[in-house]
Amino acid sequence: MADMPPSLQTWLKSFNDALSQAKQLGIPPTPEMARLGLATITQQFVTAKVEISQVIDTHINGTSIPCRIYHPSPDAALPVLIFFHGGGHMCGSIAVYDPISRRLAHHSQHIVVTIDYRLAPDHPYPKGLVDCIMSLEEIVHTLEKLTVAFQHNISIAGDSAGGALATSLAQRHPEMINQLVLIYPSLDYTFSSDSLVDYREGYILETAKVQWYFDQYFQQGEDRREASPLFSALPSNHPATMLITAGFDPIQDEGKRYFERLQLLGIPSVHHHFENMTHAYLNLEDLAPNDCEQTYRYIDSFLNQ
Predict the structure, then answer these.
(1) Which of 150, 221, 284, 305 has the lowest tally of Cβ within 10 angstroms?
(2) At 132, which helix (H) or strand (E)?
């Protein structure tokens, strides 16, 4: 961890100490604890307030799927970015990701629509994915009903597990998507990458915890390779894609391997690797402000090129 920013390194040591103590006490993980943990670190370390002119809480047209719409310039018809939050298909919400959604809207000057898809274990695979597909299919009608000024130019983004959902949509409905942004995405449910061994513990996201997340998500003996976006067929009209990976992330190889597949097929794609960062560093912004700022700048440049 020698190259990690000192503030992040110091916090990570305290995080690992607390994790070790919990293991020694035999405290088993629970969905509630995992959700509280993600919410707590985001609230603690993404603190700078970003004002957005128009914020609307509503539901995707004709469904019970909650969403929050962030319009940075309500008088202008801006392009749309649908955002699927991370959290291992078990954690995260509109509320937890509100500060990150605001930053995405502010930096990209897109209308960001964050989706509250259903979470495991109460709603296992493929229920969350179904919510995301319906959100994509109904986003135009949703915005029209609200008389929101927007361009019929839809891009999608996701971090971690949200990256898996976004990639699945890009593979299934590429004709509906302009661009795809993947932030340290989880793309392989089969654990086939070396980085899951090399960085298996000590870096926030641990391989054993990933296994636990997936066991909550897949409850009916599904073929996990078939469900993995990393191995799914890539359509020839796959949207242009930007991938962001982190050097101290056990799932970093999944993003790198997907980028290689896109390159081989000649699909426009770009990859930015933050070698000194951990998984979920956007949720730790105050510990790595420069890297987070650069990430949002990359997203802005890609979406508005």
Answers:
(1) 221
(2) helix 127-145
Domain boundaries, the chain: 29-46+53-231+239-303
Catalytic residue flag (residue 160): yes
CATH number of 29-46+53-231+239-303: 3.40.50.1820
CA distance 286 to 281: 9
Q: What are the b/e assignments for 251-282, b being 16+ CB within 10 Å? A: bbbbbebbbebbeeeebebbbeebebbbbbbb
* Structure confidence by residue, pLDDT tens digits, 14-59: 999 999 998 899 999 999 999 999 999 999 999 999 999 999 999 9
pTM of the full predicted structure? 0.98
Catalytic-labelled residue, pool 93, 101, 160, 228: 160
Residue 143, Cβ neighbours under 10 Å: how many? 22
Residue 244 contacts residue 272 (beta carbons within 8 Å): yes
Q: Is 245 left (phi over 0), alpha (psi -120 to 50) or beta?
A: beta
Angle of the 161-172 helix axis to the 127-145 helix axis, nearest 10: 70
* CA dist list (Å): 290 to 25, 47, 103, 277: 37, 14, 14, 11
